[in-house]
What does this fold into?
Amino acid sequence: MSLYDEYVDPNIGSLLEQLCPDGVEIVRMRDVVLKGSKFDWTENDFAEYVDLSSVDPATCKIGQTTTVTSENHPSRAQQKIEAGDVLFGTTRPLFMRTAIVPQELDGHVASTGYCALRANLDRVLPTYMFYVLRTQAAYKFIENYQSEGGYPAISDKLLKRFEFPLPPLEVQQQIVDILDTFSDLGASLRREKELRQEQFEHYRDALLDFDAVGQGYVSPALEQQLEQLCPDGVEMVRLGEVTTLGKRNEAPKNMRGDSVHLYSLPAFDTGNGPEMVAPTSIKSSKRVIEGKVVLAPKLNPHKPRVWLVNEPSSDAYASSEYHLFYPREKVINLSFLHFEITTELPTLLSLVNKGSNSHQRLSAEHYQNLEIPLPPLEVQQQIVGELDMFADYINGLDREIELRQQQFEFYRERLLSLPVKD
It folds into this structure.
């Protein structure tokens, strides 16, 4: 009986039987990577900088980078990266920020908050190593070895101790080809979602720009409501007039239960809802969420991380990265407030200090002094209803993406679960 009789892919199983009849070798990550290099700022005037917010945990791609110079680069901009390097975020490592450096970033610089893994191509394919780092085995290893506390991390040295089965390069390539096919399907669905999201944002902005009435953007039902209820136009108010700012803090020692729900910028980026965090691992006081609320970001406002919390649990908290705005429900709808704040973020961006994205900051006063249109509640509800219908279609794409992701993860775990030599 072959070790590979029950392997998920018969063709790869047959190849493994030929090349590794007694099982595959197991290696540590450090055994198959080359030594990286420090970025030399004395020889480079500028570079594209990959910071911790550059990698999207959902897509595992490097998105927005920042151009930094030898004069203004952050202290963490120290690692020279090459095309094919696998980056793994070692701060808050359970967010599993993982990405392969593309050709256009070859020779640029990454934060020391990443472990930059450079594959020894005689032993391992970069993409195979990337997929290995996404497995449940890697997650459990990191969970066991990360430092505890409010800012968990894992050192490069510890991460490189992770062990995994390593088949011959020919087998690695076949496994990578299968996983890439699943990954490409997911990427296609995400592109479709991005297109629909752009259409949604255009429609949302048109609905909330009441000067666009009569220009074909507004539905007949909404236009009729506006003509009846706002014949002289829509009232403008300061956001602070229709919201209450949440200010109540709670120290970790007073938080009840084994874990609490924590709304943070990194949690927002994962798209999976708030983090479940043990109070003993939280080092500073957090804002108590006391009801339906919109969380508006203080930091990095170039990213629209506006969080609508419609049904908060009794143990819900917001990190200090957010301002909390409670709607005065007799005058403003919660979802309408969320849409307004999201739409107005570009306006607010012009008010913050000019600097790198990671250092831009919005105060509560910036938000409170923002002027927004305030139609009657009936009109707000009509707008929210129309936008929600569009959002429901996007949510359907989300569910399809989630289903494909589950299929991908199933095959990834099965394909990378290889019998090892005794």
About this structure: The two ends are 16 Å apart (CA to CA). Residues 292 and 310 are 5 Å apart (CA to CA). The first strand starts at residue 25 and ends at 28. The mean pLDDT is 91.
